[in-house]
Amino acid sequence: MVFDLPSQSCRIGSLQVTGSASSTIRNPATGEILACVPHLGAKEAALAVDAASSAFRSWSRGTAYDRAALLTRWADLIEDRYASLAELLTAEQGKPLKEAQRELRYGNSFVRWYAEEAKRVYGETIPSERADQRILILKQPLGVVAAITPWNFPVAMVLRKVAPALAAGCTVVLKPAPETPLSALQLVELAAQAGIPEGVLNIVTGPAEDIGAVWMADPRVRKVTFTGSTEVGRLLMSQSARTLKKLTLELGGNAAMIVCADADLARALSGSMFGKFRNAGQTCISVNRFLLHDHIAQSFTERFVEQVRSLRVGNGSDPSSDIGPLINEDGCNKVEDLVNDALRSGATLLLGGKRIKGTFFAPTVLADVTPSMRIAQEEIFGPVACLSTFNDDDTAIRTANDISHGLVHYVYTEQLSRAFRYSEELEAGMVGINGTAISCAHAPFGGIKQSGYGREGGHHGIDEFLQVKYVSIGIAS
Ligand code: NAP
């Protein structure tokens, strides 16, 4: 497939920067070269902050209605190009075309929602105990925001950060993942076509350490919004200490799906397939561990294995593919290593268990997985389902919580009181009861523990880009 990728340059202020070196972007399914993107560094990272900083004054002083109109125009342009952007997303990331289309709709829903939310950044007035005083609370944009995004949702992670930041009145410097910069570059071009002024949204492709180091050290960058691994999140947190930046860290997960004895099994099975195999399991909210009540374990397992067996693995551009390749060799080696370790430690292989070819990994089901195995403790990021059983709610809650991460857990039960107990006792930023498709523009997405902090989505998501100012006004009493 040949894409119409005009100039692979980075938009920084009024410039289209190509730099003197470039990096090759390949299709993970075929190895085919898709494009070359600029290999920029510290100089361009600083230039981007200059541009964002200069643009901040006028962007933040415009009205929320002005920003909403431009964001809506951006969303319209993205929507007009859903078909070609989805093909590009599949080509650079590997996910099946139907998932790429879903990611575009999901990502763009944040642009539309935050275009409206820009108009609802309400301050407060607080009654004073003094007759000669009035108290106002203003909410103001933080300033320049650095957004750093991963490869697993190259469109959605960009839009989920940039839309609320721009809506709030902030300006942005963006570094997409090196594996998947092409759709991000296209989104930034569309923002410019929509009329979003120069310098408001800037993009820099190149080595993370060099670009990150400049942004983390620059006091003009007032906020960093990062999605990626816990390890890099910790590094950014330590680097940000010197300039005391506000942070949003959307880090890894290790979700449990608890299927209770009273669960609607058809519903649980459908939620399992989506929750485990979407994006070949390379999703932070992917189900890592299935905890099955003894009473339903056998029947669930038999039906689950049959459904997993029917999944078609292939190039994402083939409409019949359900699962594409893993992103790269390192990702595939990690999955292989975790599966082999689990098998050596006593897990039972029910299906799959190995690489098919290249970085395509067979949908895999392992039973008898115990909490101490590495595969139960670490984020798998691959199409591997780990099954184990429990016989009472206390054990299920304890097992689900006995990990360092705290992003999301899922529970299938038909009992209201049980649903409340799990919702309240599971240690996670999110709990899905009877469903795994929980992320949306209007609800706060994010984790606790080693999954990070800060929220994306809903009014909580725009608050991340705002600061509170208290104004005390003395008047004649
Ligand atoms: P990663 O290695 O942490 O990289 C994420 C981004 O950070 C990339 O753009 C990367 O660029 C950059 N980066 C790495 N080192 C940096 C540094 N020193 N300074 C500045 N930037 C730096 O994670 P990944 O492997 O791409 O993504 C997978 C991870 O993301 C998983 O753990 C997954 O759970 C998590 N994730 C979380 C969420 C969520 O919302 N909680 C959503 C999606 C994914 P380079 O690759 O060039 O180093």
Task: Describe the secondary-structure layout.
Blueprint: E1 10-12, E2 15-17, E3 22-26, E4 33-38, H1 42-61, H2 64-80, H3 82-93, H4 97-117, E5 124-126, E6 133-141, E7 144-148, H5 156-168, E8 171-175, H6 182-193, E9 201-203, H7 208-217, E10 221-227, H8 230-240, E11 246-250, E12 255-259, H9 265-277, E13 287-293, H10 294-309, H11 329-344, E14 348-351, E15 355-357, E16 360-361, E17 364-367, H12 374-377, E18 384-390, H13 393-401, E19 405-406, E20 408-412, H14 416-425, E21 430-433, E22 448-449, E23 452-453, H15 458-463, E24 466-474
Parallel strand pairs: 7-8, 7-10, 8-9, 10-11, 12-13, 12-20, 13-18, 17-18, 20-21
Antiparallel strand pairs: 1-2, 3-4, 5-6, 6-24, 11-23, 14-17, 15-16, 19-22
Structure, explained:
The chain is α/β, with parallel strands linked by helices. It has two domains: 10-251 and 451-471, Aldehyde Dehydrogenase, Chain A, domain 1 (3-Layer(aba) Sandwich), CATH 3.40.605; 255-440, Aldehyde Dehydrogenase, Chain A, domain 2 (3-Layer(aba) Sandwich). It has helices at 42-61, 64-80, 82-93, 97-117, 156-168, 182-193, 208-217, 230-240, 265-277, 294-309, 329-344, 374-377, 393-401, 416-425, 458-463; strands spanning 10-12, 15-17, 22-26, 33-38, 124-126, 133-141, 144-148, 171-175, 201-203, 221-227, 246-250, 255-259, 287-293, 348-351, 355-357, 360-361, 364-367, 384-390, 405-406, 408-412, 430-433, 448-449, 452-453, 466-474. A seven-stranded mixed beta sheet has the order 14-17-18-13-12-20-21, with helices on both faces. Strands 9-8-7-10-11-23 form a six-stranded mixed beta sheet, sandwiched between helices. A three-stranded antiparallel beta sheet has the order 5-6-24, with no helix packed on it. Helix 1 (42-61) crosses helix 7 (208-217) and helix 4 (97-117) packs parallel to helix 5 (156-168). The protein starts with 9 loop residues before the first strand and ends with a strand. The mean pLDDT is 97. Residues 148-153, 175, 177-178, 208-209, 212, 227-229, 232, 235, 250-253, 284, 379, 407, 447 line the site of NADP nicotinamide-adenine-dinucleotide phosphate (NAP).
